[in-house]
Amino acid sequence: MSSIDLKEGVREYWDRQSCGTDIAVSEKHSQEYFEEIEQYRYDVEHEIMPFAQFSRWHGKKVLEVGVGAGTDFLQWVRSGALAHGIDLTSEGIENVQHRLEVYDLECEDLRIGDAENIPYEENSFDLVYSWGVIHHSPDTPKALGELVRVAKPGGRIKIMVYNRRSPYVVYKYLRWGLLAGKPFKSIKSIMAEHQESPGTKAYSIHEFKNLLLQHPVRIVSIDAPATYYDLLPDKPAPARWGAYVLTFLMGLKRCGWFLRAEVEKKA
Ligand SMILES: C[S@@+](CC[C@H](N)C(=O)[O-])C[C@H]1O[C@@H](n2cnc3c(N)ncnc32)[C@H](O)[C@@H]1O
SS3 for 124? Predict the structure, then answer.
């Protein structure tokens, strides 16, 4: 599949439903709908708040790449950041527009845009933030280069991508490789075919560090603490016990499904 077709596949997938909205039962775009999504997200994904540190960016120029339904984007606006956001899909952008209206909030700029061609000038932002996005884009290294390009010298870039060395990925291999009678199926194809939009990738900490170091950045932190998803909460007890053991063996701070990296753009 060409990169253009793949990107169209990614857009179609996320245009059907923005990330994290499937748990809501209230009427779409109502305040209750958005609050269900927000409460669930921060109850389950404890890794976001301490990483993003929303309130520390008050008055700063922030760009979020891949806003999705806008739960984190709302936190930038509430924190008084000069919030700019892009997403590949109109579904995501409409969700965020409704969300801001519901709370009578305004952002600086919100538009459809591609992480691989970010529609802002270089050296524009104090912080560029992107949670769970660039591993979905066909040319992830290009998207990473764009996040760095638009950050100001001395500015920060905070990124989450999926971690290939996690119990969640082991589960995916068992489900779509071994137990599907395809023990030689690679993790790369399992991720590309069975993890959300087509072509999704996952990186080890070492691989992602090497990708980051191809750019003029200093690594501030890089980690992957064990997540809710690694503990397979909706699977039968033996699978959950196995996941607990694996989590300890693989390292509590390095095995999580969410690989978080914060870097500073060199001046
Ligand atoms: C897993 S969701 C994450 C959304 C949001 N950051 C969150 O954490 O809820 C992935 C999002 O990335 C967006 N996306 C994928 N490829 C993109 C690209 N090349 N440019 C901009 N957004 C992209 C999708 O439209 C989707 O909204």
Answer: coil
